Structure prediction request, 200 residues.
Amino acid sequence: AFIEAGKRCLSVTAWTDAIRFFEAALQCGAEPNDPTADYEVELLAGHAHYFNHDEPSARAHFEVAVRAARSAGDEGSWASGAIGLARLTNIMHARSYQEPSDTDAVVELAHQAQSPRWRALALQIIAESRIGAGDAVGGLELAHKALALLGEDADPRDLAPCQFAVSYGELTCLRLRAATISGLRALDCAVRGADLYFEL
Prediction:
């Protein structure tokens, strides 16, 4: 009941209420010393803290979720947690321009995931990190590799961030026409995938 209530709060952007419900669910969850216990709830709590701009709490939950999801062989949850960890310093805070993003977990995902989808999305966030750190050319190369891994018929919700990474790289290289074209493609993918957050 706590988990379902938390998910409903997430869907209406009530981050603080979502956090309360997910934390309550974790309190009455599985054995505390079980390394694979409740990792899906840890992941949900991490996202709620992320959207609430509480980096330390988000990081703690994502780290638990990544370790447990890897142990359980759940690549989807592993990817979600690893990408969340990278985004904490890649996008959320101005300090991403002052120190490298935390990409260890997502680099491991890019090398070890079996699914081309998860490898592509890992490459996409690494591309953003490189572009943000000043390596626009290297980041663009990774963003194009991510698009190639996905293919043109992939889920538009996956294509949108990859097209955005291409646009970000082109913009950083001051190729404004190319950046605009890729940005419009990213927006089109977000609209087709009904991804309101990415569209915004």
Summary: The mean pLDDT is 87. Residues 55-72 form the longest helix (18 residues). The radius of gyration is 17 Å. Residues 136 and 173 are 7 Å apart (CA to CA).
